[in-house]
Design a protein that fits this description.
The chain is α/β, with parallel strands linked by helices and 568 residues long. The protein has two domains: 3-279, Rossmann fold (3-Layer(aba) Sandwich), CATH 3.40.50; 286-556, Rossmann fold (3-Layer(aba) Sandwich), CATH 3.40.50.880. A hairpin with a 4-residue loop joins β8 and β9. It starts with a strand and ends in a 31-residue tail after the last strand.
Length: 568
């Protein structure tokens, strides 16, 4: 029978529940247990697809086309397991399903209430994950913080769960904060005590406490928490800050988390196989090269808006023992400056990632022109490809007023146009070209070689607009190469510039398929080309520092937040 683990958080938000859940998933996978991880989000949006990146960070896209919370990206990267739309549940989706049943008369005249109808729907979503993939363990992360009013239905549902499936099949894990008070020179357990008290007041007694801290727990802290929170000492697990999230599974393993979970769930104790993960972390902390890659985006004030891009860069860097330093460049700042070199000089590579809306587009196009002319290794992703197409049309193909129909519906040369199947779409949520689609790669292209000469590859998409085929011949004749299309040849999926050291742009999002254990070939190609351009040797790097430092003052941009709806 499937076992169920519920991960709650207390004291503060952003405590690291997602990394704890993903890290535990890695530890169980290393013991040959199958795992699926579910995220319950308390916001009323049906999914994150229409949320501003400034509020919620990146929208992660699953293979089956669900727009989900960014934590599902962590789940996939840590467990090497594909998540689906079943693994992402919001309050909005729960109420939508219950109200649809009520309108159909499924409740046969009953008064529809939070208990039992909403809680029953929540429990059914958890069971659905177990039934769909039949994993040994389902880990469920409850978003928000214990004490938030919007989380109460989820907490009530998981409280009922132990009664429904049996005490030995359910485990409650609470992630909490043990702060260091500098003026007192000691750690304080009171926030954790109050958080556990709040949890117990609704009927949930945690079996394991995960204590987030910025240093090792002081002597006596574990015993004190055990006494006041009614948790065995061995089930009080320190989780100190790490230099990289990829070190978290190793730290949790060292503290005995997996063994406690196996004992409490009456599962067989197996020896973990974490040698490859240890090698991965060692490579991360001991690079032999260092490169600086610019990410030119619209949402750089919140780096989580580009989380999968950052992680894909990290994965490629690990595979080549290269420390990847990110230079964040706000595309709005580029619009206002005369010379792009002000923000881009000295980089060894650049990425223009996805996005929506007109804000900052001209800055991205200006950046692509500078990158192309300077021979800087370049990877364009989704909107990044569209900006590359516009730039080439204006500056090389003789179409000076070319644009995308998304940004200028009246443009004379809409080199990027709306997909035909999107013409009559009205609703924004979940209506784009979403999920995994095949792309046919053309032989004798750089993309074909990077994918190890695969004729067809499968990548995830999230877009409404596409390369306008009316201009395909013009682009090919002027020097562009279309290196990937849909299998029927109708949609352009990848372009490259043969005269450039490394210039590739894709309509799909390769970052969603990258894993620490299996870096994406396009990102590997970018890092390899960046090293060749002039990456520093290990003598210029610190062997004790993790990758992906941020160095740009653009994180402190003074540009006002947009109040209009933009999806990331």
């Amino acid at each position: 029978m499937t076992k169920f683990i519920f991960v709650t958080g207390g004291v503060v938000s952003s405590i690291g529940k997602g990394i704890v859940a993903a890290g535990l998933g890695r530890l169980l996978k290393s013991r040959d247990y199958s795992v699926s991880i579910l995220k319950l989000d308390p916001y009323i949006n049906v999914d994150p697809g229409t949320l501003s990146p400034f509020q919620h960070g990146e929208v992660f896209v699953t293979q089956d086309g669900a727009e989900t919370d960014l934590d599902l990206g962590h789940y996939e990267r840590f467990t090497d397991t594909h998540m689906s739309r079943l693994n992402s549940v919001t309050t909005g989706s729960i109420y939508q399903a219950v109200l649809n049943r009520e309108r159909r008369g499924d409740y046969q005249g009953c008064t529809v209430q939070v208990i039992p109808h909403i809680t029953t729907e929540i429990k059914e979503r958890i069971h659905r994950v177990a039934k769909n993939t039949n994993p040994d363990v389902v880990i469920t992360e409850i978003g928000g913080t214990v004490g938030d009013i919007e989380s109460l239905p989820f907490l009530e549902a998981i409280r009922q769960f132990r009664k429904d499936v049996g005490r030995g099949n359910v485990l409650y894990m609470h992630v909490t904060l043990v702060p260091w008070i500098a003026s007192a020179g000691e750690m304080k357990t009171k926030p954790t005590q109050h958080s556990v008290k709040e949890l117990r007041s609704i009927g949930i007694q945690p079996d394991i406490l995960i204590c987030r801290c910025d240093r090792p727990l002081q002597p006596g802290i574990k015993e004190k928490l055990s006494e006041f929170c009614d948790v065995p000492v061995e089930s009080v697990i320190p989780a100190p800050d790490a230099k990289s999230i990829y070190e978290a599974p190793l730290l949790l393993e060292k503290e005995g988390l997996a063994n406690q979970v196996l004992s409490l769930l009456h599962l067989e104790h197996r020896s973990p196989e974490l040698s490859q993960w240890q090698i991965l972390v060692d490579s991360l902390y001991h690079p032999t090269h260092r490169v600086e890659i610019a990410i030119i985006g619209k949402y750089v004030r919140l780096s989580d808006a580009y989380l999968s891009v950052m992680e894909a860069l990290r994965h490629a860097g690990i595979s080549m023992k290269c420390d990847v330093n990110i230079r964040w460049v706000n595309s709005e700042d580029l619009e206002a400056c005369e010379d792009p070199a002000t923000y881009l000089e000295g980089i060894q590579g650049a990425i223009v990632p996805g996005g929506f809306g007109t804000r900052g587009i001209d800055g991205k196009i200006k950046a692509v022109q500078y990158i192309r002319e300077q021979g800087i290794p370049f990877l364009g992703l989704c909107l990044g490809m569209q900006c590359a197409v516009i730039e080439w049309a204006r500056n090389q193909a003789g179409l000076s007023n070319a644009h995308s129909a998304e940004f200028n519906a009246e443009t004379e040369h809409a080199v990027i146009n709306l997909l035909p199947e999107q013409q009559d779409v009205v609703d924004l949520g979940g209506t784009m070209r979403l999920g995994l689609y095949p792309s046919r790669l053309l032989p004798n292209t750089l993309v074909y070689e990077l994918y190890q000469q695969k004729e067809v590859v499968y990548e995830r998409h999230r877009h409404r607009y596409e390369f306008n085929n009316a201009y395909r011949n013009l682009f090919v004749e002027s020097g562009y190469r279309i290196s990937g299309t849909s299998p029927d040849g109708r949609l352009v999926e990848a372009i490259e510039l043969p005269s450039h050291p490394f210039f590739i742009a894709t309509q799909f999002h390769p970052e969603f398929e990258s894993r620490p254990s299996m870096p994406h070939p396009l990102f590997q190609g970018l890092i390899q080309s960046a090293i060749a351009r002039g990456g520093q040797s290990s003598s210029a790097t610190s062997a004790t520092e993790p990758s992906l430092e941020t160095t740009s003052e653009s994180l402190q941009s003074t540009s006002p937040l947009h109040s209009t709806l933009e999806v990331s």
